[in-house]
Amino acid sequence: MKVIRVSDYTELSRKAADLIAAEIREKPDCVLGLATGSTPEGTYKQLVADYEAGKLDFSRVRTVNLDEYRGLPGSHPQSYRYFMDTHLFSHININKKNTFIPDGLAPEKEECEEYEKRILSLGGIDLQLLGLGRNGHIGFNEPGASFIMETHPVKLTSSTIQANARLFNDPEEVPGRAVTMGIGTIMSAGKILLIVNGEDKAEALRKALYGPVTPSCPASILQDHPALTVIADEEAFREIQACGS
Ligand code: F6R
Q1: Which residue from 17, 23, 164, 196 could staple onto 46, CB 3.0 to 4.6 Å apart?
Q2: What are residue 232's DSSP bridge partners?
Q3: CA distances (Å), 180 to each of 91, 101, 170, 202, 232, in order?
Q4: What is the pTM of this model?
């Protein structure tokens, strides 16, 4: 595990974008596993800036996203397809046909099987970007999730629904179900990049990096990945300093 400690969110975003850019330069047709949420927004902004400065070419890049809500069309402003289009894909020269996100409206079981096949047909994920849930979730793999699962449907926990409600006009609108890559799918990526910022993630980061590897903290399995890089800011490291790890 390589741990990169940064002072703030801006530095985190710059460093994460640099690692993704390095992957694209090394393998122009790489398969990037991408995440949504507040944490990667700055990273995507940096990647867009690099593209606009003529430093990056996304024309051959393929992407697969971690997850999508059930029941939202891609045109819904809170769908993860919409998020990816507005934060990244619409601003770079990626071929949108090469960007894959589970379809929130397709029949659930078939969509999961198709998504897993899709990842395999692309040759697997070269670099998977991950954010960290306050309860230690990765993707929508909530505490208790099996470490070997592939893409599957999930019922969201009330804590995740509450955390995500801030993004919806009405908290009642937050879907109760989602489709997510499983932890088995995530762990099969060649490299994993976990980005974490803010004090509210401090406990989850401590458990993920230095706690026991247990399904009660899904991200703890990342300790077993052979090519994990973690970039986190001082605030997220607060509990790790406190216990002297
Ligand atoms: C997003 C995802 C989630 C988030 C996590 C952190 O695609 O799968 O696991 O990475 O909930 O979200 P933020 O970054 O909003 O704190």
Answers
A1: 17
A2: 5, 196
A3: 25, 10, 23, 24, 24
A4: 0.96
